[in-house]
């Protein structure tokens, strides 16, 4: 599957980022055109622009986790000499070919928090609420708020991809545990951390995920290729083959404070899921 989103030239992309970033503060670092450029290698993702969360190591760019401890004394950021596995896979598929940019994005200090308000780099502003200073969500707030690139890599422990994606109107994919490799990713709790994809549409998120869904033994928690194939066959045969969702239980929890514009589409979706065999159960808050 080819990525479906519009591919923007590096020059246009950088101009857009520089003009918007002063207002929304999504990017920690923007590589210049000369010193942080990779040779063009072609590939299925060639020409797309991808943002990377600031806890995913990217060679030649700072990895600060939005923390004053890792930002370094006197504001000197730490530049690591290697790529995380997911970044390396992006590059090998052609992302950042030529002068395409893969900048680190802002998030809340050391992956904690859902507002992205107290980052050492400053708060991230929702691009749909600049005048009100609305939150972009967190902790992958910068990754989601960017919206100026074709896709982005985030990290999710308790909603850090899904929450900002919903706030900023993009697709947020948190894959099953162990599918996307975490080698080179600064973790919070190892047993709960996931690397995921944010994109403008489902097809683009799926396309980027497909190129990253590869086993790397350097991550001891990564699912082996045998497990991946077995799980994939199980899902295809149990659910997608018959078109039935029988056996799937879906929990719902709708606080009274939710706006009808949020609740009503979800209730409509639940009705559709039940007609396909899924069961619905209320979830209590205590």
Automatic annotation (TrEMBL):
Protein's UniProt name = Amidase signature domain-containing protein
Where's the Amidase domain? Answer: 40-278
Recorded source organism is Thelephora terrestris
State the Pfam families in the record: Amidase
Instruction: Show the GO MF annotations.
Output: glutaminyl-tRNA synthase (glutamine-hydrolyzing) activity
State the Gene Ontology BP annotations. glutaminyl-tRNAGln biosynthesis via transamidation; mitochondrial translation
- Cite the PANTHER family for this sequence: GLUTAMYL-TRNA(GLN) AMIDOTRANSFERASE SUBUNIT A, MITOCHONDRIAL (PTHR11895:SF7), TRANSAMIDASE (PTHR11895)
- Which InterPro entries does this UniProt record tie to the protein? Amidase, Amidase_dom, AS_sf
Q: Which residues form the signal peptide?
A: none
Under the heading Gene3D superfamilies, the entry gives: Amidase signature (AS) domain (3.90.1300.10)
User: A GO CC term?
Assistant: mitochondrion
